Amino acid sequence: DLNRLWDNCTDCIHTNTYHTPPVCSRKVEVSDFVRYHYNGTLLDGTLFDSSHTRMRTYDTYVGIGWLIAGMDQGLLGMCVGERRIITMPPSLGYGENGDGSDIPGQASLVFDVVLLDLHNPRDGITVTNQQVPESCTRTSVAGDFVRYHYNGSLLDGTFFDSSYSRNRTYDTYVGQGYVIAGMDEGLIGVCVGEKRTITIPPHLAYGEEGTGSKIPGSAVLVFDVHIIDFHNPADSTVVTVTSKPEECDVHTKKGDFVKYHYNASLMDGTPIDSTYNYGKTYNIVLGANQVVPGMEDGLMDMCVGEKRHLVIPPHLGYGERGVTGEVPGSAVLVFDIELVEMEEGLPEGYMFIWNEDVSPDLFAEMDKNEDKVVEPSEFTDYILQQVNDGKGRLAPGFDPYRIIDNMFSNQDRDGDGKITEAEFKLKADESAAHDEL
Ligand SMILES: [Ca+2]
Ligand SMILES: [Ca+2]
Predict the structure, then answer these.
(1) Which residues, chain by chain, have CB under 5 Å from ion ligand 1?
(2) Residue 363 belongs to what domain range?
(3) Which of the ligands is closest to the CA of residue 412?
(4) Per residue in 55-83, pLDDT tens?
(5) Which pairing describes strands 47-50 and 392-394: parallel, antiparallel, or unpaired?
């Protein structure tokens, strides 16, 4: 007999939880803010009100008089996801006068409630479910640029957004107000590769207004994040020597022609590229901007046989744009490199040098057919001969014919495709010019 409900206590509510969520990290307390759905009926089952029909949650503080007394009491102790029937006597509902035409005087009320959201305005963010990689040499600080993946949901599990669905990381500076305050805070102190759950109360997220169609006002947000990488714009390339041969006397420098192997990957281990796949080394002239600055840094002052591990921040790698289909924008790169071979370069600015004294009869030696002019073919043959005989050296790593072409053009003052003795002398008298005889 429903009317006997209040026999023991005419000012008491009855609560009956008929669904308990598997996890309950927190229960409603006085002064908490809650969002819930309800159906309100009279004891005879007559529905007098429903938040479901309005298609929006009822949002309110609990236990501080914003609600009828029966609800202020009945919601206490609820978990998000819990379903509870709260039955209250008229004294804790609308009393002897009732409310409007739907709730008569002296009516006991039955509320079937499902709690969707819960926070306290004093709450900060909470970080849970942390999975920190074993090797974590550095954690993020304000001003770092972080790339991460996330799944975003409401406290009741309703999904609202995911970076995975867009198949690209969310990238941002942290601690500088570019993202909601709670995320700005939750991304501080993370390690590369770390996973964590960041729970953010609405005043540190989208507030009472919410945003878009999926984040209602006053919603607590739950982000499961996975840190892919981060860097600071002030970072330089981090070079770690992983193996050094016993004999390591000759070190690379600017201008040297180097042949090396590399394995490239992202910080999360995603492979990018490897010379081992091609079975041949990558060959460059150091300091000639043939590779990204971070790789130039990593290859300097290295000896043949040495192995290194490089961590290259994006501003010394492929920048904000990355490489389409290979390197994501703003990605930190990891290279494992091995110097296989090197050829010493020429002094800076030179493309050809003599190993020994220059012949006093240079012009005559070049002018093979003795017609008093040096033609391009004569010039080329002569230089290549000197190189073959070990008397001169071309800058390694460049196309010798292009170098020789340039040398010829430098000597051919009037650009008629021939070098006369006069042009030759004139040029030879000028000092401090490079790439010439
Ligand atoms: Ca000639
Ligand atoms: Ca000429």
Answers:
(1) 367, 369, 371
(2) 352-429
(3) 2
(4) 999 999 999 999 999 999 999 999 999 99
(5) unpaired
